[in-house]
């Protein structure tokens, strides 16, 4: 692996990144504003995600928030009021920059992503939460589609995002009432993989990140992309696409995982794919 120790740490005024053994902990970093997402934060997050995609110090991203919040949603001042006050073209740009990091980039990111929800998670914050591959929350965190409480709809792309994970009855209930709910309920609703006590949140997230870091990164990326694209297709298209994607994975995988797995299971009888990873180079 290329030496990257001297590389600057990406970030900005509103995002803080820490590296730890292949994990990039990406903090939305405006704790005094409960990490409300401003126009500046969109620019910083786009720069950070672009940089981390090519940074060897990052094998998996954990997206979280500094202080008491994951994020209190879109910044009413630094996004809504600020973008109302600029030209139509600048407003268009602010929305484009927000869409870029919150869903387009995250959803199809080259590296695996985990949202770690600590504290408040409101409105617009549901979009990056849902667009991360996996999510873990503090069971006592507070979630809410609070838009209705202040006269707007769950916009951006929040209404679309929640419909991919929540059932219609539950989604409409929270869209229409604006009622808050806790992390344990977020787990029941399918918004997160796990809800754990606050004092286990970081350790459990680290554990999960390490599992991902042990996988063949090429296969892991292809598997994530295959799932995300195939779910938009009908069965016929999905079957053709997945067959082709499987062949492409074998072709681009420098580790030759498929071949190694078969040799180790069928010929050497040294591992069982149902029970764990094949032995990778250097292990
Ligand atoms: N946009 C802009 N500023 C926000 C914000 C948001 N979404 N959420 C919090 N802030 C600011 C507050 O205005 C306050 O700023 P100030 O210190 O300059 O007055 C600061 O962050 C701290 O917020 P405060 O309300 O005092 O913190 P709290 O811990 O008592 O309450 C929340 C936290 C999240 C419950 C509350 O701030 C809140 O309801 N925020 C709005 C959540 C929301 O509806 N988001 C949806 C937007 S799409």
UniProtKB/TrEMBL annotation:
What processes does the entry annotate via GO biological process terms?
isoprenoid catabolic process
* InterPro entries in UniProt: ClpP/crotonase-like_dom_sf (IPR029045), Enoyl-CoA_hyd/isom_CS (IPR018376), Enoyl-CoA_hydra/iso (IPR001753), Enoyl-CoA_Hydratase/Isomerase (IPR051683)
GO molecular function terms noted in the UniProt entry: lyase activity
Write down the SUPFAM superfamilies for this protein, in alphabetical order.
ClpP/crotonase (SSF52096)
Its keywords, alphabetically, are:
Lyase
What domain of life does the native source organism fall in?
Answer: Bacteria
| Stated family | Belongs to the enoyl-CoA hydratase/isomerase family.
Instruction: Please state what the protein is called.
Output: p-hydroxycinnamoyl CoA hydratase/lyase
